[in-house]
Structure formats: structure tokens, C-alpha cells
Amino acid sequence: MSDVSGQTSKRLRLNKEHIIIALLLLIPLVATIVTLAPMPAEFTTRGEFVHVADVGIDGSVYFTYVESGITKNLYERFHTWLFYSTQGNPDWIEFTPIPNEYLELMEDEAYMVDSLSETVEQAVIAVNSMVTDQDGEELTHADEQVVYLLNELEDFYGDSLGLMIAIGLYEEVHGVSFASKLGINIAGTGAMEYGGTVGTIGALRQKLLGAEQSGIDLYFIPDDYEWYGEFSNVAEARQVRKEFDLQLDIVPVGTLQEAIEYLTAGSWDSL
Amino acid sequence: MQQINDSTYPSKIIGTVHKALLSVTTACFSFVLIFTIIFYVDHQTYFQHFSTIDDAFMTYGSLLYYINIVTFLIWIIRVHQAIQLRYSDYPITVGGGIIRMIPIINIWGLGSTFSTIGDYLGRHSAIQRLASHIPRLIVPLYIAVFGTNAVNRILLRNPESITSDMILFASILDVASLGVYLWLTIAITKGVRGLHANVSDVHGEHEADEASETHSQDSNSDPNQPTLNS
């Protein structure tokens, strides 16, 4: 085929190989774009339990922690799942999609560290306020106690361990062991707030499932239904108990005082 | 009658496809190696400027890698078929080729496959020099491939003990194994093309047998010259 000037023109030929190569390069490219597209999610692992004695408190109860974090896309989500599944049961990690506007707050480590120190401080104050001259040793060096505990808890974030730290401190001050006395394993979760009140926490589902699997008999949770209704920890615990047919006693408490009264009496109102 | 020429030998299309995909995969993992070196030297610079693009190359390269496994298996079977068309005494059948690639068996199978291919391609004088590269790549292939498998197993089993040194070493092995495979692919595809270039077999396999017998009996003869039955 010649053009007007007489020069031979070339036609671009697409061979079968070129089409196959293009397709096989394009498909993973599309998959890569989808995998790396922003899709933030919060992950939490199944609850694990730490005895208060491991953080220097002479008590008998356990506090709960979950490993949590943020993944920004499907790629990070897959690698996080892979990391935790090689360490244990791959079903022990849950991903919850989060809006982009929450991403910055949840990545803020300073916020998490502040909430830990606040809950520890309130736990010490709450226990201190329950001590009388006749009962035993006072926590007269509350500030030192807070510093000591924060040092022991340096590997943890968040405020949900406050309630159980407070119960452990109460046992230490009064020389009692509720677990030995009742012959059961006691754990729980709840933020210690001003006035000894127990505040709402997160990741309750994973904590309850971990408690059931770890053989915990009595599990304290915040009694927050009055403020949050169907979005409360109480409503969530009811739903998880029903869904998984949990056998452990789940006991909502509004204050540290209430929890201590249950343990002292040896009886409680379970969900 | 069977016509064997450059446009019809079995591994032509799949060889082109596999070589192209393998080239792109090797390039991706080469970029990943560069980013890994940056990570090794300066974590902060890596996380500030290169972690996202590294993720992209790693993801794309990994997906291509799995596609390459499929194209490699198809290609190597077709290579066996292509050589068998030329030399009827070629020992590796389709089934034998597949068995040689099964994990564990491939500890023996990889060496057997490539040494046999190199041996038969080397019988063709025009591509003898090219074919001589193939057996020489077997040892580097074993070191790279099985070294990569071993390191990746260790990294997967103990993720909490991964160090920058291990990541860099794993990345180097990845690129090395892909590079060796690419070199082998290029050598073998060129060799098979040369084997079938301008060969017209009027009487099918019998001609190929005669040609190979002539070659083995008389080392000075040129096996490219077809012989005709009278």
C-alpha cells in the first residue's frame, strides 16, 4: 500500500500475543488499584488477659486488652490479617470500616496515652477514697502509685483497664483476694472516671469472646444503658451473649463501689 | 505431512507471553528491591515518600508472579512438545513435564528439565552456544528459588522477629530467582525458535529422527539440512 508520495506505509499489527499480554498485564493492574484504594478500617483482635500481679498489683483479678489499629486499604488489611493469623486463629481478628474523618483521631497515639494515664489516676483516687483508717493501709503516696503503674503499663494504650486496676488495688490495700475467696476467675473492662464511675469502652465483643474462651467466670462491664441505650456496652453484651451463647456471668456495674459490693457479698445480677 | 516452521511450533505464542510477563514481574520486583534498600538505609525517608509506591509495586508484582506460575507451566510443557517434534527421542512427555514441577519432586525435576532441554537444544549446531548457557544456570536457579522459599517460610512463621537485614536479603533473592528464570526463558525461547527456524519436515517425525541420527553419527554434518527419502 503506498501513499500519495509513493512511500510504503506500515500498518500496526496487533498479534494475538500482544492482546493476551495486554490483558494479563491489565487485570492485575486493576486489582492493584482496587487493593490500594483508600478503605480505612479499624481492626481488633480477640481479648487477651493480664493478671494484675503482672503489673505489680497484689490482687487476684485480670484486666482485658485487645490489639487494635487502623488499616488504610485492602492491602494493609490483608497483611494485618496474615500477621495475626500466623500467630493464632485467623478468626480472632475483626475489621470494622470507619469513616475517613475518624482516621486521624484514631491514629492519634497521644490521645490513647492520655486516656490511659487518666484512667489509672482515677482508679488510684477511687480506691483511695474508699480506704478508712480502720481498714488498712492508705494509698498516701497516690502520685507515686500512678507513676509506678503507668511505668508498668507502658506497653498498653487506652482507658478500658481502669476498673480492674482499681479492683486489684482495692484487694492490695485490704489484703483480700476475691478470686480465691469465691473460687472463680474474675475479669472485666471499664474506664475509671471522676467519682469512681465506670465509663463506656470499645471492642467489647472481642473482649467477651476472649473471656469465654479463656475460662473467665465473672466479667464486669460498664452499666451504661441509661445513657446510650441500644448503643451501650450493656446492649452490645446482651447481643453477643445471645449470638454466641456465652456461659460466663456478665455483670454491669456503674461504679467501683458497686463492683466491690458484689464481690464482697459473693452475689451479683448477671445479664 | 507435517510442516514445522517458525510460525507454528507449539511454544511460540505462550513463550512470547510468558517472557513479556516475566520481564514486567522482574522489573516490578527490581523496583521493590530499590525501595527496600531505601528502607534499609533510612526508615523515615522510606515511610514519608516511598511506602505507598512500594506497596503498589509489591502488590502488582505479586499478582503478576502468580500469573507467571501458570504461564510458566504452560510454556514449559509446550517447550517439551516443541523439542519432541524435532527429536523423537526427547524423553520428557507432557505428563513427565508436569510431574517434574510438583513441589518436592521439583527438587530433582527443575534440574532434570533444564539440563534435558539444554542437552537437546545443544544438538543443533546453530544454537549450541546459546544452549550451553542453560545448564550453567541450574545451580544459580536452585540457590535463588529454594533460598527464596526458605527465607519466606522463616519470615511467615516468625513475623515478630523480622529484621531489616532479612527483608533486604529476601528481596535480593526474589529478584535473583526472577532474573535467572528470565534468562532461562530468553535462552530457551531463542533456542526453540532456532530449532524450528526454516525446517520443513515433509515426512513428519521420521525426518527428524534421521536428522538427529545423522548428527550423532557424523559430528561434522549439519543437522539443519533435511534429508529426503528416495
Which two chains have the most extensive interface, and how many residues on each? A-B, 18 and 19 residues
Mean pLDDT of chain A: 86
Number of helices of chain B: 9
Shape of chain A: elongated
Strand content of chain A: 5-15%
Helicity of chain B, as a percent range: over 70%
Q: What is the helix tally of chain A?
A: 11
What is the radius of gyration of chain A?
27 Å
Q: N-to-C SSE series of chain A?
A: HEEEEHEHHHHHEEEHEHHEH
Low-confidence stretches of chain A: 1-8
Number of strands of chain B: 0
**Quaternary organisation:** heterodimer
Mean pLDDT of chain B: 83
- Classify the helix fraction of chain A into a percent range: 40-55%
Uncertain segments of chain B of ≥5 residues (pLDDT<50)?
A: 1-6, 200-209, 215-230
Describe this structure in words.
The complex is a heterodimer of chains A (271) and B (230). With 271 residues, chain A is an alpha/beta fold. Chain A is built from eleven helices and ten strands. In chain A, α4 (109-130) packs parallel to α6 (162-174) and α8 crosses α10 (233-244). Chain A is elongated and about 90 Å long. Chain B is built from nine helices and no strands. The longest helix of chain B has 44 residues, at 43-86. The model of chain B is unreliable at 1-6, 200-209 and 215-230 (pLDDT under 50). Chains A and B meet through α1 and α2 of A and α1 and α2 of B.
Would you kindly provide a brief summary of this structure?
Chain A is of the alpha/beta class and 271 residues long. Chain A is 47% helix and 14% strand.
